[in-house]
Amino acid sequence: ARLAYFLNLRGPTMAINTACSSGLVAAHQAVSSLRNGECDTAIAAGANIMFSPKAYITMAQAGMLSDDGSCKAFDTRANGLVPGEAVAVIVLKTLSLAQSAGDPIQALICGSGVNYDGKTNGITAPSGMSQTELLINTYEKYGIDPEEISYIVSHGTGTKLGDPIEINGLGEAVKDQAGLL
Questions:
Q1: How far apart are CA 23 and CA 28, in angstroms?
Q2: Residues 102-141: pLDDT tens digits?
Q3: Which residue in 7, 86, 97, 85 sits closest to 43, CA to CA?
Q4: CB-CB contact of 27 with 112 (8 Å)
Q5: DSSP label of 39
Q6: What is the pLDDT of residues 44-56, one digit of tens each?
Q7: Do the beta carbons of residue 157 and residue 75 sit within 8 Å?
């Protein structure tokens, strides 16, 4: 809310904390606000800042960190993640408003969806079935042909447990949609 106050912005303002997916969930919420007419411009941001070693220690104790300091997402040599600090910000508008303003358009978000896996075999283990269902529902809701997708943002933790579940869920969703469109 401080940023909205400082920039004199109106419309929905919220902080979202969904762990690894916070930035993407913020983008989803921003797109929803644009579609619902709650605002005409949205700013979505994600930040990961480690103020103390506690989070790093907890991840190490859970066996989530790479032993060699290198994350190898979707690789047979995967042995864990390497946490980092970053901040990313995107400004979103409807296509018609961006075009009329002469704004540079870097990408189009055709549709998005959010879910939660429910109980899995561990807090760091995704549910392939939940991910497949989310993708299929999103493709159907927005009329998206998976063969026309040019960019996918994935979790890709670099673990032998999580990465195969994620990539198989994506593969199942694409396979399921191939005959429908």
A1: 9
A2: 999 999 998 999 998 888 877 777 888 998 999 999 999 9
A3: 7
A4: yes
A5: -
A6: 999 998 889 998 9
A7: no
